[in-house]
Model the fold of this input.
Amino acid sequence: MKITAVIMAGGRGERFWPKSRSDHPKQFLSLTQDGETMIQKTVKRLLPLVDKDDVYIVTNSAYTPLVRQQLPDIPENNILAEPCARNTAPCIAYAAAVINKKYDDAVMLVLPSDHLIKYEDIYISTLKKAVKSAKDGKNLVTIGITPTYPETGYGYINFGEEKGDVFEVKKFVEKPDLKTAKSYLSSGKYLWNSGMFVWKISSVMKNFSLFMPDIYDGALRIGESFGTDNFSSVLESEFEKFRSESIDFGIMEKASDIYTIPGSFGWDDVGSWLAVERINETDEFKNFAEGDVMLYDTKRTTICGGKRLVAAVGTRDIIIVDTDDVLLVCSKNHTQDVKQIITQLKEKNRNNLV
Amino acid sequence: MKITAVIMAGGRGERFWPKSRSDHPKQFLSLTQDGETMIQKTVKRLLPLVDKDDVYIVTNSAYTPLVRQQLPDIPENNILAEPCARNTAPCIAYAAAVINKKYDDAVMLVLPSDHLIKYEDIYISTLKKAVKSAKDGKNLVTIGITPTYPETGYGYINFGEEKGDVFEVKKFVEKPDLKTAKSYLSSGKYLWNSGMFVWKISSVMKNFSLFMPDIYDGALRIGESFGTDNFSSVLESEFEKFRSESIDFGIMEKASDIYTIPGSFGWDDVGSWLAVERINETDEFKNFAEGDVMLYDTKRTTICGGKRLVAAVGTRDIIIVDTDDVLLVCSKNHTQDVKQIITQLKEKNRNNLV
Done:
């Protein structure tokens, strides 16, 4: 059975503004010093397991030129453009229906396009176990991340008994408060929900038909039209009608017979500017500096420079991001609030900077 | 007797880098929101007391185009270019000798070009008292500033008995430590040394002849050649030979019969980027923002924007200065260290940014 991968690349990545913009979001940025973008890394690390002709990218139609440019080896027909944003459930149904038309059945990996993995060999061997379980008939498999600290910004997976390579999922839980997160960690029975899934096309389609029949029907119509002259108009009319829903809420929290594999492969969701110091090398004072930068008595300062000299004097715990038209200076404990500037810009109709 | 003013405008103002540059120092910048530069304000506030034809600007020869441009009403002959930097004593001797050639005797105000005065009417009335005392035969008069806090970055003037409008100076003292500065304040007998002086040309020349005879002789030769074809070559050869010396050390600390007038006219030496929040209006969270700026949850942040949007998120107690080719982010308790970046730039031969 073929192994296919669906990479979800429709996100906007507002938390990496001003480097990420609505027309050039995070997954198309390089946040590491090797120059590779997030989506390029995502595809590259999969290639030991998945043939490039079986890698599908689902993205907003506005981003298809970026995908083609950054991933020239991926067949053009594998770039699936969403006419509008409808969260992960319609995205996955669309891709599943398209793949379903090509192969009788196949294994489908569903992966975010904007995460980093430090230990790629462990990652591949973890995925291989998940693929084997899916092939062996496990309904839905999700890759959980063994938590290393009580993060309150992620959902968690509560798992139960071990079944071969996988564990039974007891339940998915929403972002906890700190006390709850600590209890999750000490129990040893919780994983972070990373948004990575492995299943057979036939399995996930069955779950769509059970829990999201409207989306199942629409996706089938999209799949049937794929490769025909009607495709664009069918896609547009069906996709518009989809409600916006996550796969977690739409299926994972409702289905039974779900399994998880704990992953310990140096996963990072690169969720805010704070990630830059985690995923790159810092100096002895925990500064990270990229570009034309001069420092004097700075500590724990992250600088992503642009074309000009950035001089930091005596700074502590701040992030400086310089671009041609915007400069951001952000306290490290306010990285989630970068979105507030985007809100202000939208209110003032300054969409060219968003 | 004519009242003349000599404005010393040869300084480099490194602490206002990157807005101030070696080819465009602080006195030629506007740091207030009215758009007037420091030197323009310095001249304008004098005009109730001094005729514009009697205002002299002593500056580095590299800055004479800037002086002409910013002060088009000052006669060109009143712009006295120093061939090299030799501190305040040679600067004042040069100006005194030139004025001495024009007038038989005159009162001479000596003033920095890069300070701000909040209450200009009080300033003028203070200067008038000093002028009267100088005319009445007081040897040397200096304007002291009534201290409002125990600043350790200024020299102090210890004064004694009141003599009419002025007080006898007992001694000039160097920058004190905090404990000493506090004792100065509580004694009520100390003023800040502001570098503003008032005397007759004849008085200051006599003091030069007594305490700095070499500079006196050279200045006389410069004054004699003023207005002749030889002037440039005489100025150059004499000025080169001068040692670098401050008027404070060269004369004020040695002469007797010195007086001071306590000034309380909202003086600010605009000594570092910290001054910007003092001399401008701030918002309710003590932020100062100039230019295209967006704030979210920022406090006590000073932003001097440039051509781009500056977004500050969650910042506290920092200064952000944006220019076309350099961005500075500086902690408020490191404003004196901006010079260290200039040092680094010079070491790396990046003089275009200095």
